[in-house]
Design goal:
- The protein is an alpha/beta fold and about 230 residues long.
- The protein has helices spanning about 15-25, 35-45, 60-75, 95-125, 150-165, 185-190, 200-215; strands at about 5-10, 30-35, 50-55, 80, 130-135, 170-180, 180, 200, 225.
- Helix 6 (about 185-190) links the parallel strand 7 (about 180) and strand 8.
C-alpha cells in the first residue's frame, strides 16, 4: 500500500470519470464512490488502479462503511474529492421541500460525512487534501434555483469552515467553482445550438483539480474558479 490514495464521490460519466482517470494516471489508487454500482464496476474494469465502492454520501452509515473498506483495501486517503451533487430547479413556491432537503443531504451533509471520516487521519499525518466541486450557485441565488443554490452555498461555507480549522494542522481544503456547462451527452443535447467553446471539458476540470491538490504549502488556494474563455461573468 505504498501508492497514494484518492477518494472521489459522485463518479459518473462526466467529471467523476475524468477525475478518476487523471488521478490514476498520476499514480494514485482511486476509490470511486457512487450509488450506481454497475457504472462503477464498468469504470473499474476500464481504469487501472480504480476500485468501486457503492455509497450514497447522504447516508452517514454508508460513508463510514465505505471509509472503513477503503482504508482496509487501499490504505488511508491522501486526497478526498466531493463531487457528488443533487440538484432540482424551480422557484421557492414550486420546489418540493423534501427535494431541497435531499439535495442538502447530498451536497452539504455529504461533505461533512466525508470530512469526518477522512480528515482526522490527515490531521494525524500532518498532510492531506479535501476538495469540493461547486458551481456558480454557491455564490449567488438566481430565480428558479431555490432547490439547488441554498445547498451549494452552504456547502461552500462548510468547506471554508473546515479549511480554516484544519489548514493550520496541515490539511489543505479547497472549493472549486465550475462556472460553466460541463461537456457531457445530455448537456450537448440540451444546448445543441452552442459551439464547442461554450462547454467546459471534464478532462480540463480534472486537470485543474489535480493541480490544486498538489499546490505547495506556501501557496494554497481555497477559492478556485474555472470557466471557458468566452463565459460571461
Amino acid at each position: 500500500m505504498s501508492e497514494k490514495v484518492c477518494v472521489i464521490s459522485g463518479v459518473g460519466p462526466g467529471t467523476g470519470a475524468a477525475l478518476t482517470r487523471r488521478f490514476a494516471a498520476g499514480g494514485y489508487r482511486v476509490a470511486m464512490l457512487a450509488r450506481n454500482a454497475e457504472r462503477l464496476l464498468a469504470l473499474e474494469r476500464d481504469i487501472a488502479g480504480a476500485k468501486a465502492f457503492r455509497c450514497d454520501v447522504s447516508d452517514p452509515e454508508q460513508v463510514a462503511g465505505a471509509a472503513a473498506a477503503i482504508t482496509r483495501d487501499l490504505g488511508p486517503a491522501d486526497i478526498v474529492i466531493h463531487n457528488a451533487v443533487g440538484g432540482a430547479f424551480g422557484s421557492f413556491l414550486d420546489i418540493d421541500p423534501a427535494v431541497l432537503n435531499q439535495n442538502f443531504q447530498t451536497n452539504t451533509m455529504g461533505l461533512l460525512y466525508l470530512a469526518r471520516s477522512f480528515v482526522p487521519g490527515m490531521i494525524t499525518r500532518g498532510s492531506g487534501v479535501l476538495i469540493a466541486t461547486g458551481n456558480t450557485s454557491a455564490l449567488r441565488g438566481r430565480a428558479g434555483f431555490a432547490g439547488f443554490a441554498p445547498t451549494k452555498a452552504a456547502q461552500r461555507i462548510l468547506a471554508e469552515a473546515i479549511a480554516r480549522d484544519v489548514g493550520p494542522k496541515g490539511a489543505h481544503v479547497a472549493y472549486v467553482v465550475i462556472d460553466a456547462v460541463i461537456d457531457v451527452p445530455w448537456t450537448r443535447e440540451r444546448f445543441k445550438d452552442r459551439p464547442d467553446n461554450f462547454f467546459i471539458k471534464p478532462s480540463a476540470i480534472a486537470e485543474e483539480i489535480f493541480h490544486t491538490a498538489h499546490q505547495d504549502k506556501s501557496a494554497w488556494s481555497f477559492n478556485v474558479e474555472i470557466r471557458p474563455f468566452g463565459e460571461s461573468w
